[in-house]
Design brief:
The structure holds two protein chains of two kinds. By secondary structure, chain A is mainly alpha-helical. Chain A contains six helices and no strands. By secondary structure, chain B is mostly helical. The longest helix of chain B is centred in the last third of the chain and has 37 residues. Classes of the chains: A mainly alpha, B mainly alpha.
């Protein structure tokens, strides 16, 4: 959701793994490992400066997919396209929400109040509804 | 599509690609980091060129004919330029320092602004020292003026270009931080 091409996504993944490795000695165990990993991953994605490039992938053959898979991948594509229209900060919040983190946990990871997470989620919900119903 | 539908799509699409342990170990090494690797290569090339320059300029560019002050200024500004670039590279290696993303990004932005200011000052001083070195001890004739003007314009353009790149970086972070700031979004 922060990078467009497969290559850029791989690069970001690699940056995140590198940051996790470097930051692990500072992990104090106050939170769950998964929460800590999300914090590092989102922080890395938000702080990286690479410009978005246009995703163009050419394949020699057409992918063969079952109807259910095809429907699912269409939905996924729609979802990620909608996410790209959100701001970077909003993308971080929605990612945590979709990973089933509570408002309190999101507020702790991001460093904003629980109440403000609610306000942001309300705005994100409205924005996504508008984008996806177009 | 509501958020619950999105949740289903989100979780359904995950965990489709698993990296091997060997691949993950490779990713923890600095020489495999996509951006830092490029930045390090650039730093090494710049460092080698500038160290060679420092070693050779005195003979090649008539250092003996220039004043001691100008020679010292050139050596110090060139060394400062290399040291600051290296310090900047070390700083961007580890942006995550605090318990939450906002605090960590505020600290990173502060650090980035500090590096940006120091980098721009040292680059400008190095450029000016180079021009001053060129002019020093020279009997200025009409033919020299366009060259000096060209050097000054090039320096201004480089400084402008560098400040634009730094501004883009800091503005991106500032925009994110503004969104995380409750008071800014009331």
């Amino acid at each position: 959701m922060y990078r467009d091409t497969k290559e850029d996504q791989e690069d970001l993944f690699q940056e995140i793994v590198f940051q996790l490795w470097k930051s692990y000695p500072t992990f104090r165990g106050d939170s769950m490992v998964s929460t800590w990993m999300y914090r590092i991953a989102l922080n890395t994605a938000l702080a990286s400066f690479r410009k978005n490039s246009v995703a163009l992938e050419f394949k020699a053959t057409l992918p063969i997919q079952k109807d259910v898979e095809l429907e699912h991948s269409k939905n996924q594509q729609r979802m990620f396209e909608a996410f790209k229209k959100l701001s970077k900060a909003e993308r971080a919040i929605i990612a945590l929400y979709l990973e089933d983190y509570s408002y309190r946990e999101i507020s702790e990871i991001i460093g904003i109040t629980e109440n403000y997470v609610g306000v942001k989620m309300g705005r994100i919900r409205t924005k996504l509804r508008t984008i996806m119903n177009k | 599509m509501e958020l619950n539908d999105l949740k289903e799509t989100w979780t359904g699409g995950m965990a489709n690609e698993v990296k091997s342990q060997a691949e993950l170990i490779k990713m923890t090494q600095l020489q495999n980091h996509p951006d830092l690797k490029r930045a390090r290569l650039r730093l090494v090339i710049e460092g080698v060129i500038l160290i060679l320059f420092l070693g050779m300029y005195y003979e090649a560019l008539d250092g003996a004919e220039k004043s001691l002050g100008v020679n010292i200024l050139l050596v110090i500004s060139c060394t400062a330029f290399v040291v600051v670039r290296f310090a900047g590279w070390l700083a961007i290696r580890k942006p995550i320092k605090y318990d939450n993303i906002s605090t960590s990004m505020i600290a990173f932005l502060k650090e980035l602004k500090r590096i940006s200011r120091i980098t721009q000052v040292t680059s400008t001083v190095f450029g000016l020292a180079f021009i001053l070195y060129f002019i020093s001890g020279l009997e200025l004739r009409t033919v020299h003026y366009p060259i000096i003007l060209g050097m000054i314009i090039t320096l201004i353009l480089l400084v402008f270009w560098s400040s634009r790149i730094w501004n883009q970086r800091t503005t991106t972070l500032e925009k994110i931080l503004v969104e995380f700031d409750e008071n800014e979004n009331k």
